[in-house]
Amino acid sequence: MEERYTRTYAEKLDAEDTLRSFRNEFYLKNEYVYMDGNSLGLMSKRAEQSVYDLLASWKKHAIDGWTQGENAWYYLSESLGEKMAVLVGAEKEEVVVTGSTTVNLHQLVSTFYKPKGSKTKILADTLNFPSDIYALKAQLKLKGYDDSHLIQVQSEDGHTLDEETIIDAMTEEIALIVLPSVLYRSGQILDMEKLTIAAHERGIKIGFDLCHSIGAVPHQLHDWDVDFAFWCTYKHLNGGPGSVAALYVNEKHFGTAPGLAGWFSSDKEKQFEMEHTLAAAEDAGAFQIGTPHVLSAAPLIGALELFDEAGIEKIREKSLQLTAYMMELIEHELKEFDFDICNPINEKQRGGHIYLEHPEAARICKALKKRKVIPDFRKPSGIRLAPVALYNSFTDVYECIQILKNIMEEKAYEQFSNEREVVS
């Protein structure tokens, strides 16, 4: 056996890993190989502590916790946005932690979708996460349009999108564009800068869903002149189930009235004047709607510290090394078992996870879980494996593929039904 395909080699890579100490910051599932961080990241000890700290501030300060304590609640959405801005390449005033992914999409579309004349359509794609499409159709309906005004770019191979095809679809009828930064199935990274330039040349505003890229892939939203973006915080950011989402609005749009206004859209200095005419904040804070979900935002205080210390560029470097190593092992160990690698191979287009297809995918995922490997199944035949740079090791990757090989050799998957579980 070649050295590269041994556990010893994986352990050698771990010994050389400059981020290996961050693994100790997380609560790893005992004896499990966790490969599902692109659905729900693991809890870090610092995220846990920051929740306790927020509870303590409530206990100690009661209502004065809004303005007192280390993380005063009144300013928490903005302060967390400032900490997160470096991960998306934004100015600190351009990001605010608020709402959920879909609520933020509704807010941003209601703000920037301004149909006029023949320019009435929204451009999206057929590979996007369903929630985004539901929201876009709902926004069209609110404006009096039917689903025919949602144009969805098709995929030639069912896994990836071609940027030139997207650009060709930017016709004179398009009023707004909403696309994923990373496709949730295949992990393809779209060229956001190229698409933004093309959209702006045609007078179209463009925004991106960063749910599957934030915390795994660096961005330069401000420099790319992206109009808006939105994302969740419970995947690669490890903010916990239901942790508060975030949004970005380019500073050139500051002063634009929020489509969905609320009390926390207000300028902080004027909010308690209690006027019935909104004096909106002059930054991304204007696009908040309701009171901050303080306890659901609390884990992010600790979680983001780890990203600040590790650095997103180093995280991306290790992520690419992990996924490259996983693909190499798949090609070597699983070549006789009919797996197709359907994620992009080249580094520029590859996100933070591997996407395999196999006719027995649902059964294989159940067999992996039985043997303490946690994958992610995507109907009808997809297996997502996400080795996360902050807490997964090269040995994890080695063990994952060895266990998968054993399952295939023994046909251990045959004891399970080939149907998805309720949550997968």
Kindly describe this structure.
With 424 residues, this protein is α/β, with parallel strands linked by helices. Helix content is 35%, strand content 12%. The chain contains twelve helices and 13 strands. The chain has helices spanning 7-15, 45-61, 76-88, 101-112, 130-142, 163-168, 192-201, 221-224, 294-310, 312-333, 361-370, 394-410, and strands spanning 33-34, 95-97, 121-125, 150-153, 174-180, 205-209, 228-231, 246-249, 340-341, 354-357, 373-374, 376-378, 382-385. The strands form three sheets. It has a seven-stranded mixed sheet, sandwiched between helices. A four-stranded antiparallel sheet has the order 9-10-13-12. α5 (130-142) links the parallel β3 (121-125) and β4 (150-153). The protein is globular and about 70 Å long. The two termini are 35 Å apart. The mean pLDDT is 96.
Quick overview of this protein structure:
With 424 residues, the chain is an alpha/beta fold. It has 12 helices and 13 strands. InterPro entries: Kynureninase, PyrdxlP-dep_Trfase, PyrdxlP-dep_Trfase_major, PyrdxlP-dep_Trfase_small.
